[in-house]
Amino acid sequence: IGLGKSTLVNTLFKSQVSRWSSGWGSEHKIPKTVEIKAVSHVIEEGGVKMKLTVIDTPGFGDQINNENCWDPISKYINEQYEKFLKEEVNIARKKRIPDTRVHCCLYFISPTGHSLRQLDIEFMKHLSRVVNIIPVIAKSDTMTPDEKNEFKHRVRKELETHGIEYYPQNEFDDDMEDKNENDKIREAMPFAVVGSDKEFQVNGKRVLGRKTAWGVVEVENPNHCEFALLRDFLIRSHLQDLKEVTHNIHYETYRARRLNDNGGLHPISANNTQESNL
């Protein structure tokens, strides 16, 4: 069953950034993802234009045999580190190296209310070694507030038990102010979200939401879900930090291992341009 990854990303950036082309209208259903695909888009946030690249992935784990199904994503992430490294060690390297590195991975958890699947645990365990993981509970409107809070607590405990670190990682808090701010965020995670590309009239206003038998679940209403919290966290407060942790921790780990294993790299040039990859 789809968890609405593409729909949420389109809602998140208020743009049709995920697997849409000019041929798709709002009345069309978003097609199911069948391959890893990167789509670039320019979004404007607070008057600042930003080039965003979204890497949309298939619903890994849907297959009969899910052994090592994280490999394609892990491989993709490492390929981007490799591109950057080859540019970096080039003698005539560019002043501004094109950056296709993946700065963040939103990991969608099914709103079962039970324990995490073993597959989720293995997936996040492998991916957290190479990228910043932000866990989210998808389609959270299927749960009551009490079920949601209980499930969040259970997920956090399971991640801790299995040694899975998710962003923002405790050890990278710079000071007490950072720690206090990030502790609040960590206590709210995984973010319980709802995505929708449909508008409804609520109290005389047009809002994005999902219609149910009981009324409209408003995507940007903090009383209904944590979509707005995720959006502010991802784009406003922590975007630069995500990029810094990627560069200083994940990329440096990859770089040290490659140079150590290889005894250095021959200068190679590569071509590509992106800014922030999520």
Automatic annotation (TrEMBL):
Residues 1-261 form the Septin-type G domain. The gene is SEPTIN9. It holds the Pfam family Septin. SUPFAM superfamilies: P-loop containing nucleoside triphosphate hydrolases. Its main location: cytoplasm. GO terms for cellular component: cytoplasm. It is found in: Cytoplasm. Keywords: Cytoplasm, GTP-binding, Nucleotide-binding. GO terms for molecular function: GTP binding. This is Neuronal-specific septin-3. The keyword Nucleotide-binding applies. It comes from Oncorhynchus tshawytscha (Chinook salmon).
